[in-house]
């Protein structure tokens, strides 16, 4: 009879029918029941009156209708529980029942007054309006005839006529039975349900799957597990408020947080209160009985870890038994949220294979941040935001709190600086609560670990994992076995509490916020630190020190542990006195980095600790300068080289002093200071010749050849490149020989001798690939792209340039990246794509400007001006 009506109006007839059916059996107290029923009728009448005045589609009014339905359902629930306790007879005439009915009548009266005030409706209750509500109840079913006749007698003294009553009944029938053809929003019972998540990103697939389970099956059991701050509660709330779930379960949706309860009895009492059960000596049975009376219901128990992870075995067993009793109710869908990865036992969880939440994607984290704080308007701020979100591993709680901080005039770049300085300590927005502080949320999980374990090995293993951002991998784990009494049990505990997760290669990983929090709270024991040091020093020194045929093979030892090596070495640099072993490990890891992803981090930190070790400091400064040079940080590199050179005379190390001069010459050449560069390189070459260091002298000749080529002195350049290449070939130095071949190819390209250029560049590229020099190979692809542009083979040119650019971006080599954008500009210019060409030249100009390469900036500006003038 109500199939066409919109929610929530369609539920009024059935709800009222349930009430009148229960009330008929309670007529031993006629006056109290009449008072309550009279107020129900008045409330229906007022809702209809408001609907007439405010329009048929009013979400706020619909919310009040839902509140009315919830109030009536609460009364029905309380009466059913009392009836179930006395199955052999009608409801007993006790003071308890009397108080219940009187109290509910008073609540109905309060709700009537709230409606009047909110919608500014004058409710002069005449016989027409009250009788209309009564008649509406009567129209639901003939079974209520006796009841409504009795109630109608209470208003006969003010009878005014049948016409007004009939109009009201007709209106209600049209609203309740037929509906108005429009869908209205579903607003759940605000008196007992938490609000719908205001920002919910990155979990739609999981939400859809779980909603489907809830709607398509009875007696579903869902466990939402995961680390703290992953959004488990938000997902549960989203399920509660999902439109499909509301349509299926309607108002029998319940949410109980047990975060602050001490035992299962307290939790059951809270649940019983939600269900409208009064004081009872057995809240568990009362709650179960109440839920069994419902045709279909959904119960969320939030933060179950408080009870489930108890160090009291009996208390944990009590929790398990109560959950089993809930799970056995055929009409109940049970959802629990809990920290950890292991679901409570004794229950067959419907989603057992997909219960654990992990971090959201970067896109979802960005959407979350921007919904709360707004989208950054500057490109640099967008980049800072991505680094910030990546830094916190896109943990939903951290992302949400950072966005809230951003609303108070904190830009992403400012928040990123605070993250680098303070880590998790600043990610908080209020008091000490898990939802307003990342540290508090993490501490809760650590407390669970502490409370559930009598030993300390779980915490010790956690501290080790905190120093390894790339994860504790199986080979290292195996070497640590002898340093624990039972490392496997410790690992299992950490996984159980979701303090670590198991990665795709079985490594133990930690979320970045958890890792940084643990680093500040749980120091490693001296014995475990010593063991980890020995393991990782061996890994560091097993890696490659230079580019050659064996580089890829040796790099396999270091590559998967590079982040761990860097993290541990930084810790050792900060906490230990310098040693030969530490110097060797820092140098080895930095050399690997130099050839793969140049980073000054280790050398920059180490040099600050070497002030009393001048020989080590000089070498550190030289290596730091080389890294700065390949990163195009020329001014910083020059400072490092000069500082190193000033130390070497006192140390008597002429070879290192000459290396500093050579590197200074390379920096000056890159800055177009050719005369100064030439002077430094000649001096360095003379020193190397004197020291009989043939390869180093040949490298100086190679650099001089670059200067001559840049000045257009091609004959001189060819002589130097050819001479140096012969030396390198004779000494088996394929890398340096390939560099000379590449440079000879560039001279052929400058002279527009395209076949010869292509031949030299192809051979050089194959040699770079053979010695695993990705940068050298990318440079050859870029220059071959230039050859293809001049040959008119634009498709091939674009593929070569794109391939080269990807490597430059990966390595962070800005000068080569700018050169690549210049070539893109020439490609688009030749294709007649003027706007694309201008954009490419502008990009190149911006990078050249940042590097201080003014000659290149001027060339880009000239091309841009020419293109714009031709438009």
Write the layout of secondary structure elements.
Elements: H1 12-24, H2 30-54, H3 59-85, H4 95-119, H5 127-140, H6 145-152, H7 162-178, H8 204-216, E1 221-226, H9 232-241, H10 243-249, E2 253-257, H11 264-274, H12 283-292, E3 297-302, H13 305-308, H14 313-327, E4 332-339, H15 362-373, H16 379-391, H17 396-406, H18 412-422, H19 438-452, H20 457-466, H21 474-480, H22 487-496, E5 501-502, E6 508-509, H23 512-521, H24 526-540, H25 551-558, H26 562-575, H27 580-596, H28 601-607, H29 614-630, H30 634-651, H31 654-670, H32 674-690, H33 694-710, H34 714-730, H35 734-750, H36 754-770, H37 774-791, H38 794-811, H39 814-830, H40 834-851, H41 854-869
Parallel strand pairs: 1-4, 2-3, 3-4
Antiparallel strand pairs: 5-6
Helix pairs in contact: 1-3, 1-5, 2-3, 2-4, 2-5, 3-4, 5-6, 5-7, 11-12, 15-17, 16-18, 20-22, 20-23, 24-26, 24-27, 26-27, 26-28, 27-29, 28-29, 29-30, 29-31, 30-31, 31-32, 31-33, 32-33, 33-34, 33-35, 34-35, 35-36, 35-37, 36-37, 37-38, 37-39, 38-39, 39-40, 40-41
What this model shows, in words?
The protein has about 850 residues and is mainly alpha-helical. Among the domains are: about 10-180; about 205-355, Rossmann fold (3-Layer(aba) Sandwich), CATH 3.40.50.300; about 360-425; about 440-525, Arc Repressor Mutant, subunit A, CATH 1.10.10; about 815-870, Methane Monooxygenase Hydroxylase, Chain G, domain 1, CATH 1.20.58. Helices cover about 65% and strands about 5% of the residues. The protein has 41 helices and 6 strands. The strands form 2 sheets. Strands 1-4-3-2 form a 4-stranded parallel sheet, sandwiched between helices. It is elongated and about 115 Å long.
